[in-house]
Each structure stands twice: as C-alpha cells, then as structure tokens.
C-alpha cells in the first residue's frame, strides 16, 4: 500500500509546491482536487485546472511527479451528477468529462465522484435516473482508459436539511447500484460508515473486489450533542452536532483493524488522508501539521 492525501485541504496551492512538500514528508501518492476554478462548495478546491490542461502541461506535471517519486492515485471531483436542475446536472457532468480527459492525459486510472441525488424523486426514481445518466459517463471513461469510483459519503444536508444528498452510502444501496453499474468502483471511506453504525471491516470484506481506493478520515462521537439531540438531531446547527470528522488516529476508528482487513483482502492501493478536521484547519500551516499527524498515525500499519 501507499500513503497519500487529498490535496483539497491545501486549497488552491499549486501542484509544484504541493508535490514537493508531500515528498519531503514521506507521502507516496496524491489524490488531486479537480473542481472548477470558480467553485463555492465547501471542502473543494482546484489543485489541477483540468479545463486548461493540454498535452504539454500534462507532460510537465508527469515529469514533476516522477522527479519527486509521487504517484497520482486519482483525480477528485465530487459533485451531484443527478441534480434535479438539469442545467446544473449537465454542467457537473460536463466538468466530470473534463476531469476524465485530464486523467487520460496524465495516465491516471481513477476519477472519483458522487452519484448524487435528485431530491424531487424517491429512491426508486433515483435508481431510474442512475440507469439513464451513468452508463454514458462510464462508457466515456472507458474510451479514455479511466475508471469511475464513487465515495460513500451520504452528504446529509447538502441539498436539503436531513436528506442524504448522495445515494451511495450503505451496503444495500451499493449492491443495488453495482447491479445497475457493474463497472463502477468504490472509494471506501470508513469515517462515514462509523457514524452510520455500519461495520467498516465487514464492508471491506464484502466489497473487496470493488474497492479501488480508500479515504483515511476519522470520526469522533460528541456525546453532549448526541445526548441533546439523538441521531436525528441537527448535524450542523449551533455547534450541536453529535459527531465530527477528525484526522486518522484522533477519532474512534480502529485503523489497525481496517488496514488489516484491506491487507487480508489483497488491497494494495492507496490510503488517502482526507483532511476535514476542524481542529487542524484555519491556515495552510495548520493543515500541513494535521496531515503530518495523520501520516504519523497511519504509517506504522503501511508497508
């Protein structure tokens, strides 16, 4: 396995500086944020401007990564590909195709995104939308020698309070969606499974053949918020949430068990730290220190 991180936490810091710093800290891979430059989503950034990437620039980037011995584990663009507003949906899909094009130019195998959700439809209606929307995306990626992987974040409250904004968050839904889209892959993030009370080791064991990439993000249960509101309480209002994301080793996930399960099932890909820890945010310097903490906590388990 290789240890890396998602570049989003460093904002729009350029690739040159990011790659050099990552190599100096011992990281072996980077998951490159590839949102549009004009973007207002939280936890989204543009380390790579895919819209203006050409063969010459791609060649320069490949030389840069080779110089520092860093692998690109995937390109990351997580947005709602089933948005109820067709203009917004089509804009997201158009940009996703640009990310796929960029992956092809860079020789990167995986592009990560969300399924998303049309909140005007029920789950059955969304499954019909998935059957319609995603096969052309996957075929487009195949022609570019790229595979699509989906992260299992429910994105609760993303579009509407209390509603899951990404219908790819539980094993039952994964099974149904993989039945529709057998070529789809999984970017497995145990942090979401933890607060959903889904066993992340069992998930590794069942879906090992689908796991193309993993996120390393931890979860801390906030007992005061849980006592006040229960699991149906507000996730974000007035600071009264009942869980929060942490850097690996600073929450409650058993990383030894999770990584051991990955090894047991033959996974030899990248474990990519996704930094959304509010304690280690606020400046590039703090984010870097947080990434170093995550590296130190995970590296004993990775060969």
Task: Please characterize this protein's 3D structure.
The chain is of the alpha/beta class. The protein has helices at residues 15-25, 55-68, 86-106, 123-143, 171-180, 190-195, 200-206, 223-229, 255-264, 284-298, and strands at 2-6, 29-33, 71-76, 110-113, 147-151, 185-188, 211-216, 218-221, 243-246, 270-273. Strands 1-2-3-4-5-6-7-10 form an eight-stranded parallel beta barrel. A two-stranded antiparallel sheet has the order 8-9. It starts with a strand and ends in a 5-residue tail after the last helix.
Concise structural overview:
40% of the residues lie in helices and 16% in strands. With 303 residues, the protein is of the alpha/beta class.
Cα-atom radius of gyration: 18 Å
Order of SSEs, N→C?
EHEHEHEHEHEHHEEHEHEH
Uncertain segments are none
**Tertiary shape:** globular
Please count the helical segments.
Answer: 10
- Span between N and C termini? 6 Å
The count of DSSP E runs of length 2 or more, i.e. the number of strands, is 10
Overall pLDDT metric: 94
Strand content: 15-25%
Helix content: 40-55%
Q: Which sequence of strands runs across the widest sheet?
A: 1-2-3-4-5-6-7-10
- Structural class by secondary-structure content: alpha/beta
How is the main sheet built?
A: 8 strands, parallel, barrel
């Amino acid at each position: 396995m290789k240890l890396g991180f998602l570049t989003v936490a460093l904002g729009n810091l350029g690739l040159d500086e990011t790659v050099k710093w990552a190599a100096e800290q011992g990281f072996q891979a980077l998951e490159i944020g590839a949102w549009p430059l004009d973007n207002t989503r939280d936890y989204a950034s543009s380390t790579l401007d895919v819209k203006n990437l050409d063969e010459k620039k791609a060649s320069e980037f490949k030389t840069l990564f080779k110089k520092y011995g860093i692998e690109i584990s995937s390109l990351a663009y997580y947005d709602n590909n089933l948005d109820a507003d067709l203009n917004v949906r089509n804009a997201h899909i158009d940009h996703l195709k640009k990310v796929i094009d960029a992956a092809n130019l860079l020789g990167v195998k995986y592009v990560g995104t969300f399924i998303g959700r049309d909140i005007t439809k029920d789950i059955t209606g969304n499954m019909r939308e998935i059957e319609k929307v995603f096969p052309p995306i996957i075929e487009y990626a195949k022609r570019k020698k790229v595979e699509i992987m989906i992260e299992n974040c429910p994105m609760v409250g993303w579009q509407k309070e209390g509603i899951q904004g990404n219908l790819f968050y539980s094993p039952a839904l994964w099974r149904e969606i993989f039945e529709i889209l057998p070529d789809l892959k999984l970017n497995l993030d145990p942090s979401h499974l933890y607060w959903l009370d889904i066993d992340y080791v069992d998930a590794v064991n069942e879906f090992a053949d689908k796991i193309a990439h993993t996120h390393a993000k931890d979860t801390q249960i906030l007992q005061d918020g849980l006592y006040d509101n229960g699991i149906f309480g507000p996730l974000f209002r007035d600071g009264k949430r009942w869980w929060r994301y942490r850097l690996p080793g600073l929450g409650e996930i058993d990383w030894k068990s999770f990584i051991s399960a990955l090894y047991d099932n033959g996974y030899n890909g990248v474990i990519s730290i996704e930094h959304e820890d509010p304690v280690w945010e606020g400046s590039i310097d703090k984010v870097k220190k947080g990434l170093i903490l995550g590296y130190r906590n995970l590296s004993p388990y990775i060969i």
